[in-house]
Design a protein that fits this description.
two-stranded antiparallel sheet; transcription; 14 helices; Homeodomain-like_sf; Rossmann fold; HTH_AraC; DNA-binding transcription factor activity; 319 residues; Arc Repressor Mutant, subunit A; alpha/beta; Helix-turn-helix domain-containing protein
C-alpha cells in the first residue's frame, strides 16, 4: 500500500480562515492518499482575521514530520520584514527536501526565512511592490496565479490557493483525481499557473457578444484544425475585437488557451486509454505525435510515454 503523504498547514496569527481550510478541502478526501494536520508555532490557539480564534491540535513538532508544508496567508497589517524568531525556529525544523507551499502573504514568511532566495515566486498583487522592495533577491512575478519551482510553490490570493493545491494533486496523482476533487469543490479543474492575476482590469460587461459560446464550440471540436480566424468568425467579431474580449474574459490569449485545452484533453486520454500517441494527437487537434510531445513537454516537462507510465494505473475513485 502506498505511503500516506503528510501535509502540515502552519497557521499564523491573523490567518484567513478560508485559505487555512483550502489544503484540508483539497487533500483531505482523496481516498486516504494524504493526511492533513494543522499546527501553530507554539501549539496555542491562533487568532484569525475575523472575530474568532482557532484551536489547533498540533504544535511546531508536526513540521518535522511533514512531506508538504503549506503556509496560508495572514492579514497584511501583520506582514513584517523580519519574522518572529519562534516562527523561524519552527520553519528550521522542516526536513530538507520537504515541499513548501505558500498562499498569498505566506510568501513573505518563506522569503524572510531565505527560502526563496534566487528563486521565482509570486504573491498577491496588492503587496507585490512591498515584497519586491523587501526581498529583491527573489525573482518575483506578481502577474501569475502560482509559480511551481519544483519543491517550492507560491501562489497569489484566495482562489489561487485552490489552483496551486489542485495543481499539486494533479502532479501527484493525475488529472482524473484532481478533476474529481475540483468538481466536489465546484471550481474549475484547471487554471494555468501562468494565467494573469486579475489586476486592475474591469470585469467585462456580460453581453450576448461574449466569447463563451465560441469557447464551448472549440472544446466540442478540438479534433479539428482551428485558427483565431475560425473562432472570431464563430463569434461574429473582427479578429482584433475577438482577441481583446477573449483575453478580458479568460485572462490569456485565444491561442494559448486552445493549446492548454488540447494538452489537458491529451493528458486525460493518456491516463484513461491505451491509444497510441499519434492517435491521441489527432483526437485533440495537434498535427501529429511530435507536436503533442513538444507541447506536453513545454507544459509539464515530460514525454507522453513518461506521463502515461506515471498515471496510467487506474486509481481508486474519490470518496
Amino acid at each position: 500500500m502506498a505511503r500516506v503523504h503528510r501535509v502540515v498547514v502552519l497557521a499564523i496569527d491573523g490567518v484567513y480562515p478560508f485559505d487555512l481550510g483550502i489544503p484540508s478541502r483539497v487533500f483531505g478526501d482523496v481516498g486516504g492518499r494524504y493526511e492533513v494536520l494543522t499546527c501553530s508555532v507554539d501549539g496555542r490557539p491562533v487568532r484569525t482575521n475575523s472575530d474568532f480564534s482557532i484551536t489547533v491540535e498540533h504544535g511546531p513538532e508536526a513540521l518535522r514530520t511533514a512531506d508538504t508544508v503549506v503556509i496560508p496567508p495572514f492579514v497584511t497589517t501583520a506582514v513584517t520584514r523580519e519574522v518572529p524568531g519562534v516562527l523561524l525556529e519552527a520553519l528550521g525544523s522542516v526536513r530538507p527536501g520537504t515541499r513548501l507551499v505558500s498562499i498569498c502573504t505566506g510568501a513573505f514568511v518563506l522569503a524572510a526565512a531565505g527560502l526563496l532566495d534566487g528563486r521565482p515566486a509570486t504573491t498577491h498583487w496588492v503587496v507585490a511592490d512591498l515584497f519586491r522592495e523587501w526581498f529583491p533577491q527573489v525573482a518575483l512575478d506578481p502577474d501569475v496565479l502560482f509559480v511551481d519551482d519544483g519543491d517550492v510553490l507560491t501562489s497569489a490570493g484566495a482562489a489561487s490557493g485552490l489552483d496551486v493545491c489542485l495543481h499539486i494533486l494533479r502532479k501527484d496523482h493525475g488529472s482524473e483525481i484532481a478533476n474529481q476533487v475540483a468538481r466536489m469543490c465546484v471550481v474549475p479543474p484547471w487554471r494555468d499557473g501562468g494565467q494573469a492575476q486579475y489586476i486592475q482590469h474591469p470585469v467585462p460587461e456580460i453581453t450576448a457578444s461574449g466569447t463563451a459560446a465560441s469557447r464551448q464550440w472549440a472544446l466540442e471540436n478540438l479534433h479539428e484544425p482551428m485558427t483565431l480566424t475560425d473562432l472570431a468568425e464563430h463569434s461574429h467579431m473582427s479578429l482584433r475585437t475577438f482577441a481583446r474580449r477573449f483575453t478580458e474574459e479568460v485572462g490569456m490569449s485565444p491561442g494559448r488557451w486552445l493549446i492548454q485545452q488540447r494538452v489537458d484533453r491529451a493528458r486525460h486520454l493518456l491516463e484513461t486509454t491505451d491509444q497510441p500517441v499519434d492517435e491521441i494527437a489527432g483526437q485533440v487537434g495537434f498535427a501529429g505525435g511530435t507536436s503533442l510531445r513538444e507541447h506536453l513537454h513545454a507544459a509539464i516537462g515530460v514525454s507522453p510515454l513518461a506521463y502515461r507510465r506515471t498515471f496510467r494505473a487506474a486509481p481508486s475513485p474519490v470518496r
